Request: fold
Amino acid sequence: MERIPILLVGEFLLVSIQVDLHDRLALALQDDLTTEVVKVRAKGVLIDISSLEIVDSFIGRVLGNIAALTAMLGANAVVVGMRPAVAITIVELGLDLSCLRTAINVDQGMAMLRLLLRPVASQGSDESAEK
Reply:
């Protein structure tokens, strides 16, 4: 079975989906990503879907599940490169993806992940400064 590559970039995982995402592959990606988040203690996951032309309700739910699961594992997830037609489809399907953060491109997505880490890092340094 084919797999989607997951790359470690600093403390983030980068996934660029370059093939049609069928249901089994989407579930495999969900499993692989959550396993990799734990394995490398990733602080964030960036998923590039710019090559996806169609997202059905199942794939939309899997993307939402990935965001929720990575959050439970201590990492933030950002989806980048969403085409307007995909966004329209997700809205028309009535999918609740409120837990899913999005950005226009990989650069903005990485910047968002870095920004999301900043408050956590500053809280830790404030606590140690008080002791």
Notes: The chain has one domain: 6-130. The domain at 6-130 is CATH 3.30.750.24 (Transcription Regulator spoIIAA).
